[in-house]
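This part of the workshop introduces the protein records we will be handling. To make this concrete, we reproduce a full record directly below.
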Amino acid sequence: MKSSILPRKSLALAAAMTVLGLIGCSAQANEETIRKNLAAVMPKDIKIDEVRPAPIPGLWELRIGSEIRYTDATGQYLIEGEILDLKNRRRLTQERIEKITAIEFASLPLKDAIVWKKGDGKRRIAVFADPNCGYCKRFEKSLQEVDNITVYTFVIPILGGDSPAKSRAAWCAKDNTLAWRNWMIDGTALPKSEASCDATAIDRNLALSQKIRVTGTPAILFEDGTRAPGAISPEQLEQRLQAVQNADKAQKKS
């Protein structure tokens, strides 16, 4: 007579699958509860795109666009702030934001950018900038201290005033690289653009910035898809560029 008792490995696997199933059901229940309770108290125009367990047990992550908030398992409390892993010296919230806002560099329409290169130009970044943005001008000056770089600047007039006119003038200049850098670094007036100039690239840049959630300038995109929201120092930029290079080398070796 054959035994009806399952092998121990099969029992262990079945038990593990049961536990995972219960965890999955619990997570789904928590998400539904959180969404329901938060929807009752939060403004109707705020859409929660994703609810998932946070790195800290008992906390749940709320993704609203490219912003991260936290709540408890019932959606009664809302927590604004950053989770830091002190032991491993990691900024977990920032890492998560970088992941959800990552952009495939190869997908960028580089033909719509003002381009300049220094040194061998092997290291590349893309920058979204407004011609009237003071922080953009400061970052443009910082770029002059970094070597072996190619910079693609997507001009976006988001500050109002005469930003659209200056953006068009920069793009339509005979040498738009020189015109842009002279304006941003030295304050040299931009040449008047001709009416016949096709400046639809500016409109495409604005549409692109909205699509990838660029909410301020300068927005700096690196080749690994990460970004820096705001002006950074030459030292910080160099560190980021080296980190991207090192990660690329490590990936090629693996």
